[in-house]
Amino acid sequence: MKDIIANAKRLYRLKLNQTLPEYKRYLFNPLQTSPAKLTAIYGSRGIGKTTLLMQLLQASPLPKESTLYISCDHPMFQDVSLFDFVEAFSQLGGALICIDEVHEAKDFEQALKSIYDFLDIKVYFTGSSAIQLVNPDLSRRYSMHHLAPLSFREMLEITQQVALPVYPLDALFEQHEQIAHEVIDRLTDKKILKHFQQFLSVGAYPFYFEDPSKYVDRINETINLVLHQDLAKIFQIQPDKIDNLKKLLLTLCVTKPLELSMDKLASTVGITKATLYKYIRYLDDAELIRHITHEGKRFAAMRKSDKLYLAHPNLFEALCLNQNVGTLRETFFVSALLPSYRLHYVDQGDFLVNETYQVEIGGKNKGFEQLNSIENSYVVSDDIEVGFDRRIPLWLFGFLR
């Protein structure tokens, strides 16, 4: 075990020498100040979890020899007990360890429980998919933090070199005019719509800033890793069935939400309806799609199909040539609110938010015909800089995190 620890420390030193982005994500401060013994960072692939771990390690006041980074997908950990490794590191003076790709370790859940119960060491750990990390047994023991793709606010902070605040949901509905002016006034060029249109295509995944010309290729690589490695391994999906998952993604890319019934969607993909529901759950857990239920299902069983969306507008760039502008707008809205807020679709308008606000998504000329008789109803409009009364700019929902 000492040889493995020595090798892990050598790799850690090499990784510490790599240049890290100066920009720190919205989770950095809460994680750095968290008193929790074990802390999980979960989310989709490619959104910067490893970078966040390294930033936490670089900022730690502890001596570097008492800190360590490991990735469980490295071959040297293939036959190594995660608990035994962390125990040995702790006995050698280890006080903080960051464990990347923890779901690649054998029996990782039991190892984490044992570390929590028996060792005096602080642990941050990540998983590329929320599938096995977010379960009641784990979440009761540890501090769990979801890392989302870059928000529109974060992208502006990076590209415009400006500090911008996060706003709570209620403030966006009740004070949106004031907030929109505050944000635009902080931008040097004042061109919020230009930046928003760019964000719908690029910038949600931090690797965009490494090489913008390779962004679409990197998204495709990320999708394939999720399908062929994460989902195939966790759910024991046969290689020939992975193509059906990809076909489902492509079908969602070129059809409007609810344009196809579940029966027709299953037929288009070439799978049974039961398998379709299973695949939808897999892709939703892996944060490649989002499914929204009808608000009536809160109270009773209803024969209403779920609305299915790609998880972020940037995925359209990799999966289809032509995008429907209405679907793109709705996809942005869904990606901005989930998973932090409750979202259902409705018959009048588009969405019910937090069981309080009813909204319809559209362009700058979208009317209120469907919403006039509904209390707390709003039109969320694309292509406007500042709203008025019950009309709110779509871009503003990129400031929820």
UniProtKB/TrEMBL annotation:
InterPro entries: AAA+_ATPase, AAA_14, DUF4143, P-loop_NTPase
Signal sequence, start to end: none
Residues annotated as domain AAA+ ATPase: 35-153
Pfam families with a match to the protein in the record: AAA_14, DUF4143
Name of the protein: ATPase AAA
Species whose genome carries this gene: Thiomicrospira aerophila AL3
